[in-house]
């Protein structure tokens, strides 16, 4: 291993703080494409999007967005928003926003809902980076690594 600082960094997993998650807000919208887009199974002239904001009690917020294609994945933006509002928001309110893996453990008690969990996961990383004033890539170990810590929020890959 080299002596560079970035090669010696390790991912910041769960850091504890006095902060709590105060609110979780989901916005949805449909935006037109400049021209219709052809996907394997569907042609669309507009996209459905979900945007999540996880807000800490100090006012800082983490955000994440997702495009929803109901014809391909069975989830539209309003269903995704409702899932987050009803199933996950109550589990997140009051948690420490820096205790990322503890928050993921809390939401993983609900089966499936991969898109909602992925949005929450990305927003938690964004919020942690803002609170610590560190870019997310630094939280993940920095730009120069021989290997990278990684985990999946979806189903296991088939071999």
Q: What are the main properties of this structure?
A:
three-stranded antiparallel β-sheet, 3 strands, disordered N terminus, 159 residues, alpha+beta
Could you explain the architecture of this structure?
The protein is an alpha+beta fold and 159 residues long. The protein has a single domain (18-139), classed as Enolase-like, domain 1 (2-Layer Sandwich). It is built from 5 helices and 3 strands; from the N terminus they run E-E-E-H-H-H-H-H. The protein has helices at residues 70-73, 77-92, 100-107, 114-132, 136-139; strands at residues 21-38, 43-56, 61-68. It has a 3-stranded antiparallel β-sheet. Strand 2 (43-56) and strand 3 form a beta hairpin. The longest helix is centred in the C-terminal third of the chain and has 19 residues, at 114-132. Mean pLDDT is 86; it is low at 1-11.
Give the number of domains. 1
The CATH topology is: Enolase-like, domain 1
Quickly name the level 1 CATH class.
Answer: Alpha Beta
Number of strands: 3
Query: How much of the polypeptide forms β-strand, as a percent range?
Result: 25-35%
**Regions with pLDDT < 50 over 5+ consecutive residues?**
1-11
Quick overview:
The chain has one domain: Enolase-like, N-terminal domain (Enolase-like, domain 1, 2-Layer Sandwich), CATH 3.30.390. The protein starts with 20 loop residues before the first strand and ends in a 20-residue tail after the last helix.
SSE diagram, text form:
Layout: E1 21-38, E2 43-56, E3 61-68, H1 70-73, H2 77-92, H3 100-107, H4 114-132, H5 136-139
Antiparallel strand pairs: 1-2, 2-3
């Amino acid at each position: 291993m080299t002596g560079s600082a970035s090669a010696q960094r390790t991912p910041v997993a769960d850091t504890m703080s006095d902060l709590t998650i105060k609110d979780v807000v989901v916005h949805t919208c449909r935006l037109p494409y400049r021209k219709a887009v052809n996907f394997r199974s569907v042609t669309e002239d507009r996209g459905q999007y979900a945007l999540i904001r996880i807000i800490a009690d100090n006012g800082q917020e983490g955000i994440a967005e997702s495009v929803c294609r109901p014809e391909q994945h069975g989830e539209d933006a309003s269903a995704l928003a409702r899932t987050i509002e009803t199933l996950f928001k109550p589990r997140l309110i009051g948690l420490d926003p820096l205790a990322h893996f503890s928050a993921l453990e809390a939401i993983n008690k609900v089966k499936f809902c991969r898109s909602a969990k992925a949005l929450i996961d990305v927003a938690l990383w964004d919020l942690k980076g803002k609170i610590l004033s560190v870019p997310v890539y630094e939280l993940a170990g920095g730009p120069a690594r021989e290997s990278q810590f990684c985990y999946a929020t979806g189903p296991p890959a088939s071999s």
